[in-house]
Predict the 3D structure of the following.
Amino acid sequence: MSIHKTEALVLKTMPFRSSSLIVTFFTPRLGKVRGVVKGVHREGEIRQAGFELFTHAEYIFYEKKRSDLHLISDATILESHHALRDRLDGIAYASYFCELVDELTEIQDPHPEIFDLLKESFRFLPVIPPSRLETVFVTQLLREMGWLPFLESCLECGAKPLEKGFFSIRHGALLCERCRSKDTAALSVGSGALAVLRSYGKNPLADCLRASHSSVIESQIKTLITTFLNYRLGKVLKTRNFLDSIRPVLKSA
């Protein structure tokens, strides 16, 4: 068996037999990795802490050649992210980000940019309005997966530059006024929302979060991106449903 030492972020965990744990984590150079931590529940809270959800740690694991379920032997915590687990909104949004990464990526398919995006988003979650961070995170995750909507010109006639238009969820692209009949379900998108959405797809996460725009524009972007994402996934993720169910509670808190 090959031995690997890598930093990673814990995406999800699942109990395995009486005292073990199956952990899915995301690494910068190996992509998504799944492994078993044997006897973790017998060895006390100190060892268990290295495998908590959202933990950023350095892991040692033994790669099995005939299975994608490897053997994890050790964890050295780099950042526990306990603040995310101490708040309802932190748990809800971080879990949604993790499920998205888990859903969109394949086992051991490296995406270092996605690792950096998730790591940076975890750091911003306790200090930035999470709803705003969510929109930027999802847009940039779509970019890294090659799913970013085409927003530079009309998909049908090529007219550009488009200052406003109609976003086709089905095609993942803009249509101009003349071509809207190609998809009558296309959603109207104004110049402000279009400009911000383009910037989210091009600029670093921190720059996007520093930019200022109205709540109306943010709401329009969120609707477009969330609807498009759900269409591409063919379903609504469990963590997305949970997030929507607790949103009234978060607003009143």
Q: What stands out?
A: The longest strand covers residues 2-16. The domain at 2-80 is CATH 2.40.50.140 (OB fold (Dihydrolipoamide Acetyltransferase, E2P)). The longest helix spans residues 215-233.
